[in-house]
Amino acid sequence: MKRILAWLGVVVVVLAAAGFVAFLYFIPPFTLVKPEEFSRPMGTAGPDLTKISDPTERMLAERGHYLVTLGSCSDCHSTPGPQGPRIGDMYLAGGFKATRKGHGTYVSSNLTSDQATGIGSWTDEDLKRVLRSGQSPDGTSVPGHLMPWPAYSHLTDEDLHAIVVYLRRTAPIVHAIPKATEASFTDPTAYEEDYAGVDYAAPPK
Amino acid sequence: MKRSVLLLLAAVWLPVCAAAQTPAPRPNAGMLYWVRCASCHGIEGKGDGEYAGLLSPRPRDFTTGRYKFRTTETGSLPTDEDLARSITDGLHGSSMPGWRGVLSAEQVQALVEQVKSFSPRFASEQPRPIAMGPEPPSTPQAIEAGRGVYEKLKCAACHGTDGRGASAIARDLKDDWGRPTRATNLDEPWAFRGGSGVRDIFLRFRTGMNGTPMPSFIDAASESELWQLASYVKSIGRKPLWEMKGDEVAAFYRARDEEDRKDPVKRGEYIANISGCVQCHSPYREDNTMIEELKLAGGQRFRITPFGDFVAYNLTSDKETGLGDWTDEQIKTFVTTGVRRDGSRMLPFPMPWPNFAHMSASDLDALVAFLRSLPPVSNRIPPPQAPNIFSYLAGKFRMLILHEDQPLYMFPGNAGSWTDGARP
After folding, report:
1. Inter-chain contact A200–B30, Cβ cutoff 8 Å?
2. Is the ipTM, as predicted for this complex, more than 0.90?
3. A74: nearest CA in chain B?
4. Which chain B residues are within 8 Å of A75, Cβ to Cβ?
């Protein structure tokens, strides 16, 4: 009797394991959204621009939304979830990781208008500067192969302005992003201090 | 006992005091350049850093000693102040940021020396600063006279009669490195790289912009005529978008749409650049510099666990391996819905077609027109590669059960069939 029970137990465990593997194998990666509908949330993502009373600002923000969509900002800057970027509730709130050989791993920033953890305290000029050259106001920089600022550097000043107007309108989401630590070049100033006074005939490669 | 403790304290304390009093070490120019400048201007200052292939205008090549923004005679080297000004203020409308507030004056000075060291000319030549009088007032009469100078000096040949280049005769402009360049749009003074003051504009005519087709005009016109011309060019500038209100904004966007319809290739190039087509569909070497022969010819490999490896497609007009025999409709369907020619649908990444689904019809037309204008490059792209079953299951387990987010990996090198030397 006992032996039968033990065998039964083994069979149940093996079946469960096999079932779990089969489940993992066959479950579609996206269980909530059909591929045909992937593009739908993008249209309604972000703030409701029709509520802006000033027509000038509304037109600029609409243009900004269009450019932010084309630039795919939300793909990397929306907090990732099990079903891809959380466009619905964490739109542009940051936290996605990207890695490139020679640069390390970086975490995307919170682009919502939150004062403390987002870009609420950044000036317009700072935002345009980082989009053009990857240089943050605190002296740190981000590699252009991870945050594609070389692509955005082609934006005209007027389109950059529209993007800034739009970003100011995003709902503030409190979401602190840890500073990237794996890449030593996140903070070049610290690096410079390490090597201050050292003379190199040729810069290291 | 007490005395020995005091001695010990002094032994520790004195060197600390001494260290605190030594002056700050001289900025390490090589390291500073490497960290702040080399990613665009290149380790050896050749203007071939890792982002050079993506930027417009391209980063300056320091080895020739030719600079656009100077206060010296044409063909002459710039002064130290000229170089320091470009570093501190940046070049408006380009990827050269102003370093004010980030770098100290000594660090800027160290960088000036470093930049000069790349060209042997600085060792043998001296900059020849121009002599210039004080800036005359910009009166309506001066502006009117400047219009005459604009005609006399044939500025319209490159910049067009309206300053926007619309009626320009000379269109195929090349810089000294043989790369295509465009006459500046005089309508948008905020994007003048060297500044939009009357004095800045005057200096461009007076000194010429070395390395570009823009010459010095001091032999063709007097200094006072050039001042008048500067006043006139300054007066052409239109109202920027950020000063417009209500109907003006609507009219501005309408006018620009109309203009874009007349030149869809230029518009399409803009869309291709800002939506990242160029950046993802070009391959990069180990040192992250672009393989420029393969610009837009695909070949960059992306890994997204657990889905596998995806290689960016060849977007040039090559019939065999690119978009040459795709119809306009097929390209548009793929860009906006991710549906391939065989009817299968790609995942919503690495190419973010769910975003491009919102592209306006006119922008989509322009994008196709631009892709059609690309010369064919043969680079056969392999189909997406699924991972082996174990990493597939492990990746799915981490994604769906542990809710871990998997980073995106990008690989250097061309994964397509093109190899150096394979083509003439």
Report:
1. yes
2. no
3. B355
4. 349, 352, 355
